[in-house]
Amino acid sequence: MSRIGKKPVQIPSGVTVTLNGSDLTVKGPKGELAMTFVPEVEVTHQDNEIAVSPVGETKRARSMWGMQRTMVSNLIEGVTTGYTRKLEINGVGYRAQMKGSSLNLQLGFSHDVDFPVPEGIKIETPDQTTIVISGIDKQKVGQTAAKIREYRKPEPYKGKGIKYEGEYIFRKEGKKK
């Protein structure tokens, strides 16, 4: 039994939920998101709650149960508060700035890296070494942060590169004489 799947998702005030068969649409103050449920789960909407339950006792139905409930919770949280990821840039001469609708990164390459901002994502650079990615879709925010981090992952000797805020970089000792 899924401990997460058993809990119904509470719908806060100001959020409109439309359930049409296996399609769910959530509208809130920040925007609108939609998803389609897998056929192994059954969804019911009543009294400001959305409940997800498995259709059968198959392994796939039980594994989808908790995941689909979490996805509904993520949709509701996204349209009410949104999601943010912060990236930190470490390294001499490494910096980031917004240029129009793209993020310009100087990461020690012979050229600047221009990252086009995806639709539905907002990127800010409060200073040259911090990138703040925000949006209503948790998957898009995380994927965008991962793509930016991929340009220069933090290395273990000096810690140079792009890392998530609060990420621990395992440090290695360099060569000895």
Explain what this protein looks like in three dimensions.
The chain is α+β, with helices and mostly antiparallel strands and 177 residues long. It has three helices and 13 strands. The chain has helices at residues 3-6, 59-80, 138-150, and strands at residues 9-10, 16-20, 23-27, 32-36, 41-46, 49-54, 83-90, 95-99, 102-106, 113-116, 121-124, 130-135, 161-164. A hairpin with a 4-residue loop joins strand 3 (23-27) and strand 4 (32-36). The longest helix has 22 residues, at 59-80. The chain is elongated. 21% of the residues are buried. The model has no long low-confidence stretch (mean pLDDT 93).
Observed structural traits:
single chain; 177 residues; alpha+beta; Outer Surface Protein A, domain 3; 2 domains; three-stranded antiparallel sheet; 3 helices; 37% strand; structural constituent of ribosome; rRNA-binding; ribosomal protein; Ribosomal_uL6-like; Large ribosomal subunit protein uL6
Which range best describes the helical content: under 10%, 10-25%, 25-40%, 40-55%, 55-70% or over 70%?
10-25%
Mean pLDDT: 93
Gyration radius, to the nearest Å? Answer: 21 Å
Strand content: 35-45%
Beginning-to-end CA distance, first to last residue: 58 Å
H/E order of the elements?
HEEEEEEHEEEEEEHE
Derived from helix and strand composition plus strand pairing, the structural class reads: alpha+beta
The CATH C-level class name of the largest domain:
Alpha Beta
Count the beta strands: 13
* CATH architecture descriptor text of the largest domain: Alpha-Beta Complex
Uncertain segments are none
Major beta sheet, strand line-up: 11-12-7-13
What name does the CATH topology of the largest domain carry? Answer: Outer Surface Protein A, domain 3
Overall shape: it is: elongated
- Biggest sheet, in brief? 4 strands, antiparallel
How many separate helices?
3
Number of separate domains: 2
Q: List the quaternary state of the chains.
A: single chain
What name goes with the CATH superfamily of the largest domain?
Answer: Ribosomal protein L6
